[in-house]
Each structure stands twice: as structure tokens, then as C-alpha cells.
Amino acid sequence: MKTVLLAVTCTLVLVSIECTPCSRVQSVDITDGVKYENSSIVFEGTEYTSGAWYELDENGTALVLGCPCIGRKCLHRCCSRGSAFVQGQCAETDASAINPFNPPLYNGKVLSSVQAYQHFFYLYQRPCVDSYLVDSAAAGEELYIQQNGTLFEVSPGGPIWHDPGSYCVEMYFNENASEARLVAGVCFEDVVTDDSPVLYTAYAVGLILSVPFLLATFLIYAFIPELRNLHGMCLMAYCGGLIVAYPFLAYLKLHVGRVGVAMTGCLVVAFIVYYAFQTSFFWLNVMCFDIWRTFR
Predict the structure, then answer these.
(1) Whether pLDDT at 16 is above 50
(2) Could you read off the pLDDT of 138-174 as tens digits, one per residue?
(3) Where does the signal sequence lie (predicted)?
């Protein structure tokens, strides 16, 4: 019976945990790649080593997704491979402006000699659903793609810096498709909600501050013989579970939304938090039963 319960519990834990080395929007489908004995996968000339790819079941389809942005800078394209904006819509084109796609790179406003198509890995998907268009040909608008992947936008409202994962770039062709200019689709800023990083940090601080008091309670009951009765021992076990769970849960709170975390570390921390809380809740139930039996 214990073996069955342990197996069911492990299954539930593994199903509920999703540890990926990169976000979905920074992943590429490498299902058709060649896998080697060292667990690396080669797809379209790029090698994805162990830890730089993961498996995902998406709408009933088993996919193998690679993380090209680990150890390399990525740049989002607004249109698919071989396409560009033609009269406001993504359309295939054989124009030399996108074959290869090689927009100028800058350090601030100083032109760099680095070639974009050699420096960046292009991700052919937009990083967000809702975005606004920034046109370098519009009055007062300037776009400068930086070598580090950020975007420097000069607008009538003042200069704005955009993080690498908050925009996509593409070439825009006019009606006769003879001239091209650089445009960017910039994501709208996220509205601060209860899931903001500040709130997660506050959760983590609160959890860490609780640990010394739980530890003090544990030590008092451990070193005073008069308190080491049945109720005291249950309370010590309950506090012990929380003492283990809270620091690891605080660690998870501080790393919400981060990518590049090792799969092994993610699983180990998840198991520790899960079983520490299971232990504390079990002893809490025992304490409740003991109190009920005492006062009935």
C-alpha cells in the first residue's frame, strides 16, 4: 500500500511540475532534429546540448523544443522565414533586404561593424500578441538595434529602451516593393498585477522571516523536558516540516519567471518543498486529532 501511494504521489508531482530551460516564446521546434548518444540534438546546423532542449506535449502532440538563446543572443522577427511586411501584411518575398536579414547594429547611436545575421539567432515568432508599430520612416522616430539585443527607440516623447524579449523587427516594403525600411513591433507594457515581482519578493521575505521563529519554537520544545509530551513532539514535527519548506519556497518565489534554471535543480527543490509541506500538514492533522481526543 505504501508503495502504491508513493508511486501515485510521485506521478502527481511530476505532472504538476514544468521545468523548462527556456520560455516557450524563446523555443524552436527541433522535433525533426538528429539526436546523438551524448543527448545533444542537431537541427538545421545548430547543436542543442543536453539541458538546452526539452520535451513538451502541446495539444496532444509530442514536441521536442530547443533553446537557442542559451549562450547566444536572439532577435525576434515579426514575420516567418523568407517573409517581410509588404503593404502592411507579412508576405513571402525574395528581396535582398531580407536574404539575409541584416539590419544595422549600433552601440548607442554609433554604427557597429558586427553583422546581425552572424551575431543573432533569429526567432520567427512575435514575443507577444498585442504590440504597436514603430516605423523608422515616421517623423521623429528612429530605431537602433543594439549589439546586446536591446532596442533603442527615439520618439517624439523621448528615448525608450526595449528589452530583447519585448519587441520584434522586420523590413517593411512600400507599394512597388523597391525600397525597404526597418520597423519594429513593440509589446505593450504589462500592467502591474498581484503577480508582480515586488509581490513575489515580499512573499519570499515573509517566508524567510518566519523561519527563525519556527526554529525557536522547535528548540524550546526540544530542550525543555516538560514540553516533550505527545502534543509537544507533534508540534516539533510540524515546525520541522515548515522550517525545511519555507526557505526552498522562498527560493522559488525569488526565481518566478526566470529561465535557464537547471532541470535537476528544479526537480530537487520541487520535491523538497512538496514533501516538506506534506509532512507538516500530516502532523497538523495529528495535532488536531490529539486536541479533539483530549477535549472530547
Answers:
(1) no
(2) 888 899 999 999 999 988 888 899 998 899 999 998 7
(3) 1-19
